[in-house]
Request: fold
Amino acid sequence: MNSKIYVTILIIFITISCSKNSKDYLSEAKVIIDSKTADKSELLNVVDNMKLVLKDDPNSIDAINYIMMAYTQLDDNEAALKFVNDLIDGSEKPSAILFYNRGMLKTLLDDKKGAIEDFQKTIQINPQYKKAYNNIVSLKLEQNYFVNNEWIQFTKDDIQRFIDETYPESINKPSIEEFINSDQICYINFGNLDITK
Reply:
């Protein structure tokens, strides 16, 4: 075999075997995001690599989530919001997860009304998305009972009323205890509030 052809084939083989694929990028991103100790350059690298993944698979939920988590860890929720807005605006049929993620970001940015609207869009697309219902309930509770950074007294009947108003009859509603102890609500922290009544 001609030595030039052999060298060319070898270079191509090395390039292919050494180049990273989407699975590698996703695995690296998971490690970095899960570490919670990544520095700015590592997190920005996650964003860049996940954008490469999205070029190959524009619907990669993992890549979208890792970008959002990286921006959140960078304390740049505005950049995360712009990213999700661009995805929603550029999609003919945005997924429920995009609206859900945007609702979570709007919650962090203290846009409760906008967050509720996005969680409602989430359940219009996917009526079984319990996290979205629970987040709507928690945001309504906060709008009504969280004043001057403190919870004012409310009862289990108040929680039940918001659950009943939010969940359609066709969805299995959580009990009050299930709602309070759920890991499917975005951020609500009842602190030392006594809601035993």
